Amino acid sequence: MQGREDIYFAYFWNDLAADKTHSVPLADRQAYVAAYSRPARMRAGWAYFAAWPQTANDFAELSKTKLTMPVLAISGEKASASTLFPQMKLVANNVTVVGLKRHWSLADGRTAQRNYGCPD
Fold first, then answer.
1. pTM metric for this prediction
2. 37 CB burial (10 A radius; 0-12, 13-18, 19+)
3. 5-18 confidence digits (pLDDT tens)
């Protein structure tokens, strides 16, 4: 994988994008590849996904008490929105959902966050 991070990420950005004409901009791609090309970064990224089974167990326990604070859930409509939004409503009483038109939340999520008063 080392030295081929751009190929790895290009698969997600090019082949899995809901709309290939509006995927992640080139400057952003270059920044992500540069960041993940640093030592141990890819391993850390994969560790996040490897931890999902334990995370699911932790969330099952935590969800026994609903959140009372406002929750802003942002996701691409063609990404995980159909899963994330119903899940958030199971664990929180005050949920605002924002379905972004694009697949990748990182592509236009910052604007949505600003529109709902979240800091950068």
1. 0.57
2. middle
3. 999 989 888 887 77
52-89 pLDDT tens trace: 999 999 988 988 999 999 998 887 776 676 788 888 88
Tell me the β-bridge partners of 92.
67
Neighbour-count burial of 29, counting CB atoms closer than 10 A to its CB (0-12 exposed, 13-18 middle, 19+ buried): middle
Tokens standing for residue 111: 């604007």
- Does residue 98 contact residue 112 with C-beta atoms inside 8 Å? yes
**Contact (CB, 8 A) for 12 and 5:** no
What's the CA gap between 20 and 102, in Å, rounded? 10
All residues at 6 or more sequence positions from 119 whose CB lies less than 8 Å from its CB, including other chains: none
CA distance 80 to 16: 13
On whether the CB atoms of residues 94 and 68 are closer than 8 A, the answer is yes
For residue 20 the two structure tokens come to 């290939």
